[in-house]
Structure formats: structure tokens, C-alpha cells
């Protein structure tokens, strides 16, 4: 019985929102925009999403996590933010509840 409860609580724990800090980037460039030569990092992120079909991602310095909300991140392009949401570890997508500038 204890084992069943432990598994149930472990599975339920993945449903709670957490906070993730990183930089809003795009799935084409993730951590480096220099090679694209498209102006500032902010300009590159926005252009890659609008013109090249990239997705907004949260880059934590090691890994890019796609964001379920693809509208709000535009205002934070190339800026450090804190995203509150739930990570789907299977597909690497954060279901976004809130995005705010990092302090």
C-alpha cells in the first residue's frame, strides 16, 4: 500500500507548476544568435519566429524548452525571464501559466 501511495504522489507531483529561469530565444538559434547576423539578439529571435517558422523557447544555458504560449514571449525576446508552468518531460514543452521579467 505504501508503494502505491508513493507512486501516486510522485506522479501527481509532476502536475504542479514550477518556475524556470532563462532567456527567451527561438528554436532555430537557442543559445547563440551571432551566426545568423540578423541584428540584435532581440531582432534575431523575433525574425526567426515570424519569418522562419521557429518557436519561442526558454533557453536555460544548457537546454531549450518550447513554450506552449507563443504570443507572450515576443515582448520578452532575448531577455531573462522566469516562466511559471508545468514541464512535460516527454516532449520538452513548458505549459506556460505566467512569464515575468527575472529579477
As a percent range, the share of helical residues equals 10-25%
Question: Any idea of the CATH topology?
Answer: OB fold (Dihydrolipoamide Acetyltransferase, E2P)
Strand content: 25-35%
N to C succession of SSEs: HEHEEEE
Please report the distance between the alpha carbons of the first and last residues. Answer: 44 Å
- Derived structural class: alpha+beta
Description:
With 103 residues, this protein is α+β, with helices and mostly antiparallel strands. The chain contains 2 helices and 5 strands, in the order H-E-H-E-E-E-E. It has one domain (16-101): OB fold (Dihydrolipoamide Acetyltransferase, E2P) (Beta Barrel). Strands 1-2-3-5-4 form a 5-stranded mixed β-barrel. The longest helix is centred in the N-terminal third of the chain and has 12 residues, at 2-13.
Amino acid at each position: 500500500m505504501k508503494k502505491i501511495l508513493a507512486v501516486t504522489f510522485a506522479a501527481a507531483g509532476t502536475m504542479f507548476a514550477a518556475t524556470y529561469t532563462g532567456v527567451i530565444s527561438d528554436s532555430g538559434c537557442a543559445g547563440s544568435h551571432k551566426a545568423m547576423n540578423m541584428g540584435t539578439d532581440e531582432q534575431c529571435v523575433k525574425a526567426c519566429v515570424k519569418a522562419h517558422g521557429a518557436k519561442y523557447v526558454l533557453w536555460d544555458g544548457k537546454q531549450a524548452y518550447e513554450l506552449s504560449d507563443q504570443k507572450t514571449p515576443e515582448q520578452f525576446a532575448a531577455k531573462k525571464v522566469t516562466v511559471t508552468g508545468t514541464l512535460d518531460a516527454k516532449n520538452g514543452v513548458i505549459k506556460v501559466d505566467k512569464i515575468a521579467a527575472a529579477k
